[in-house]
């Protein structure tokens, strides 16, 4: 009696969980490092610089577990306001932001369109 009830419960759980899992966005490919060309970066590919920028978006994604954050952060080769927002929430120190701005200019290849400046005075 107990046993069949348990089976019923697990079957029900199973039936409920399957649609939930299949409905979830497919994240398996997220961990894959994004590619310089995929992001349409027009600057110089410097691995150190690129992976540092990529890392910001990775960390930002880890914080929110939100797929759209991950995508938006890398949009236009990191030149989106989301990248700036990620720097803010990750509490990146101003010296590091200055570094990252330099990295971004090199990797992105075009004048950055948003203001990443940490000081708003
Ligand atoms: C991940 O993406 C690649 C193409 O970018 C695809 O070939 C592969 O099947 C995907 N893997 C999974 C687990 O979805
Ligand atoms: C890439 O950038 C790093 C950090 O600024 C620098 O030390 C390194 O020499 C650069 N590498 C190339 C190949 O330009």
UniProtKB/TrEMBL annotation:
Q: Name one Pfam family in it.
A: Crust_neurohorm
InterPro entries (alphabetical)? Crust_neurhormone_CS, Crust_neurohorm, Crust_neurohorm_sf, Hyperglycemic
Give the signal peptide range. Answer: 1-23
Q: Which GO terms describe its cellular component?
A: extracellular region
GO annotation (BP), single: circadian rhythm
GO molecular function per UniProt = neuropeptide hormone activity
State the superkingdom.
Eukaryota
Query: What is stated as this protein's family in its record?
Result: Belongs to the arthropod CHH/MIH/GIH/VIH hormone family.
Put simply, this protein is called Uncharacterized protein, isoform C
Organism from which the protein derives: Drosophila willistoni
Quote the gene name from the UniProt entry.
Answer: Dwil\GK19672
